[in-house]
Design goal:
By secondary structure, this protein is mainly alpha-helical. The protein is 41% helix and 9% strand.
Length: 188
């Protein structure tokens, strides 16, 4: 509820302060900076507003559907608690699916993963798997019917100002992709 600051006592409800309270109420143990491996997280990504209206955006990630629902419920409960503390404030919370864990699709076609591992080996590297904790184009493509497991690119310091990749990593990635195309041609 907007009000002139000079006459705001008992009238103003500051949306920026409520949005900040929501962010501060997020459990630290389920934030990207405190989780790893297959731990899910809630990640605030955008915060815009005025004292009258604020919009927050989050990414919710989990490797399991029930874990994803638990993260939604965490946000719902925080909003409910804040609504109870400030009943005149109006909250609207919506969830939009981005994509599902590609494992649900790739488990149906193990050839795709085995071919990728074989291609990595043929390139002279040791294949290994670790969870990708963020969004990937491969997840979108896989959900749409084109099985696309993530294959390394060799990036370092991803999404930072100092992100980089060396020429040898790029060469190994290209070798892997060439072997993968040959495997698909011969075995698929």
């Amino acid at each position: 509820i907007a009000s002139h600051p000079g006459s705001a006592k008992g009238v103003m409800i500051n949306a920026l302060k409520l949005a900040s309270a929501l962010i501060n109420a997020l459990p630290k143990e389920i934030s990207p900076e405190h989780t790893e491996g297959r731990d899910g997280f809630i990640h605030p990504t955008d915060y815009k507003g005025t004292s009258e209206k604020a919009v927050l955006k989050f990414i919710l990630r989990d490797f399991e559907l029930d874990g994803l629902e638990a993260k939604r419920e965490t946000l719902r409960q925080i909003v409910k608690n804040l609504q109870d503390q400030e009943p005149l404030a109006k909250w609207k919370i919506t969830f939009h699916s981005q994509y599902r864990n590609m494992r649900y699709y790739l488990d149906k076609d193990p050839f795709v993963i085995e071919a990728a591992k074989k291609a990595v080996s043929k390139a002279g590297l040791v294949p290994f798997s670790e969870p990708v904790r963020g969004g990937t184009d491969g997840a979108h493509l896989t959900e749409r019917g084109l099985p696309t497991p993530n294959i390394f690119t060799g990036f370092h310091n991803i999404h930072s100002e100092k992100e980089w990749i060396c020429l040898q990593d790029m060469e190994n990635s290209v070798k892997t992709l060439i072997h993968l195309a040959e495997i698909w041609e011969q075995e698929a």
